[in-house]
Amino acid sequence: MTNCRICGGNVREFFDFGRQPVSDAFIDPSGGETEFFYQLAVGYCTACAMVQQLKEVSRDRMFPADYPYRSSGSAVMREHFAATADRFLATELAGDDPFYVEIGCNDGILLGAISRAGVRHLGVDPAEGAVEVARAHGCRVRDGFFEAATGVGIRAAEGPAQLIFSANTISHIGYIDSIFAGADALLAPGGVFVFEDRYVGDIIENTYFDQVYDEHFYLFGVRSVRNMARRFGFDLVDVEHLPVHGGAMRYTTARAGERVPTDAVGDWLAVEEKGLTELSVYEEFGARVETNSRALVELLTSLRAEGRSVVGYGATSKSATVTNYCGIGPELIPFICDSTPEKQGRLTPGSRIPILPPAAFSDPYPDYAVLFAWNHAAEIMAKERAFREADGRWILYVPDVHIV
């Protein structure tokens, strides 16, 4: 039994993915690097409903200065964040001289739109490479991690913020108490702290088991976020389900008593009451993970025996969970194509599969491609139409193993 990082309650383990590496620690093939591994087990808090990992990887290991992920690499995410910026500019940032703060702004995909609108803004991010890109696009960014002292410091230097926003970042942070303390110190009266993250309901329903990796320390749900916000003096005042990443939820929080919760909060709580409040639901998810993992390895082994060529597409963070839990290495997937320059020429963490640029995908086209970046399937399949025309087939492993 483990104590919950949020409420101190009992966390019941429901699945163990075994020994896993840091998911974005891509390896230099020249050697000399010592990989860090940890035990990736996940559990459910029977008191506050928060799904969380039992072991925490330090933030410095997960998010070093050369952290390779770039949000702007996907057209879908560019469109998503452009629409998000428009919405905020028309609502929370529509007043006189508003101030916007973004936690984990990455390469400025959303912050840039706020900047171009002439709104006072500040991003906070520890990845120096991504920060340099954001600054090159005219964004103001502060290096480092956001915590309680950060909120106090920004408030003293810049004044209060009407909106603090974060996308796919808050669930990465074990020390949530410090995040909310920083938000409390920084927010203007009536201001909101809004964050969006992958939704645990979609993950469980669709067996998106690769969404469990080191960075996703928490898997948020409406009930668990409401309980979390209340513990730190905030209310959950609105929720919105989003289609990105296979299903995400946008949570709007405000200091207790400053805003009235929308009907959407109650509606989603009712939905979760029917399917996410029992440990058995998560244990059943674990059983499906084992089924999918076995089926994927059996398929790849069979294709190799038949002499079929198979490669990977998208050296994503979540692919680390799949390859390492399933024991998939270069003997089953000789290489993975990825468009991120920072990943090319390196090896995937743990499984050590070579990562090649996109040109390798068509030189020549393989018979099959495992789509690790399945959350961008529509975008990728449209771009790689010639692969299908060459009789290539996609392999997906969620919600089950199937060929497209």
From TrEMBL:
Q: What is its EC number?
A: 2.1.1.-
Question: Keywords for this entry?
Answer: Methyltransferase, Transferase
Q: Tell me, what's a Pfam family for it?
A: Methyltransf_13
List, for all copies, the residue spans of the domain called C-methyltransferase. 243-399
Claim: Iron is one of the keywords in the record: no
Residues in Methyltransferase putative zinc binding domain copies: 4-63
Q: Name one GO molecular function term.
A: methyltransferase activity
Q: What biological processes does GO assign it? A: methylation
Which InterPro entries would you find in this protein's record? Answer: Methyltransf_Zn-bd_dom_put, Methyltransf_Zn-bd_dom_put_sf, MeTrfase_14, SAM-dependent_MTases_sf
Q: What CDD domains would the database entry show?
A: AdoMet_MTases
Q: Among its keywords, does the record have Transferase?
A: yes
This one is known as Class I SAM-dependent methyltransferase
